Amino acid sequence: AQSVTQLGSHVSVSEGALVLLRCNYSSSVPPYLFWYVQYPNQGLQLLLKYTSAATLVKGINGFEAEFKKSETSFHLTKPSAHMSDAAEYFCAVSLMNRDDKIIFGKGTRLHILP
Amino acid sequence: SQTIHQWPATLVQPVGSPLSLECTVEGTSNPNLYWYRQAAGRGLQLLFYSVGIGQISSEVPQNLSASRPQDRQFILSSKKLLLSDSGFYLCAWRFGTVSYEQYFGPGTRLTVT
Fold first, then answer.
1. How far apart, in whole angstroms, are the C-alpha atoms of residue B69 and residue B12?
2. What is the CA radius of gyration of chain B?
């Protein structure tokens, strides 16, 4: 069965520092993977997706993620944090069937320190 | 382009009162539709999904129900709200079989008092 684990429910980084949010997945088939961002009192916004093409995926707002099959990881990174990056981030894996249910991680809240 | 709407944006209801939340999608046809709930500090919980008109699958049997009276309309209902129904309700959609990512609406904040 597919599952997603996000390491760290809260992560704090200084403005201008590297952002690294960790995600490990479990899947019995080659997965489709996603990162979503949620700002307070808003819906989830798709940041980027991996669909078995390039292993390094670039998304919006300067974020990117690398699919590493050997490590079953899909970590999200951004070279330089900005105050506007403060939000909650969800990693997710698709079951890739007709129902297309997505399994979400529990989320990581990113805090940006001035 | 596609747009998803949810209303109301916020709602305060007493325990035991009925509930109706509406979600509509514009700019696409025959989408898969989903209802999620976010309780404080508890992540996303899938409540219902629908692959077509009148086709509803329930993930968490409880005092909530869902209906899809039209292709791009998805309604979440309850006859009698419980305190535990408080939360942030999100509707999402996906292209039928084209891709696997879901797109979310702005959400409804429900407080049951």
1. 25
2. 13
B42-78 residue pLDDT tens: 789 999 999 899 999 998 868 999 999 999 999 999 9
Distance of CA A60 to the CA centre of its chain: 12
At residue A74's C-alpha, the angle toward residues B107 and B47, to 5°, is 30
Three-class secondary structure of residue A85 per DSSP:
helix
Which of chain A's residues have a Cβ under 8 Å away from the Cβ of B101?
A: 32, 34, 46, 49, 94, 102
- 3-state DSSP assignment of residue B83: helix
pLDDT score at A98: 61
Residue A11 near residue A110, CB atoms below 8 Å: yes
Asked if the Cβ–Cβ distance from A44 to B90 is below 8 Å, we say: yes
Return the SS3 of B86. coil
User: Which residue's entry shows tokens 């696409």?
Assistant: B28
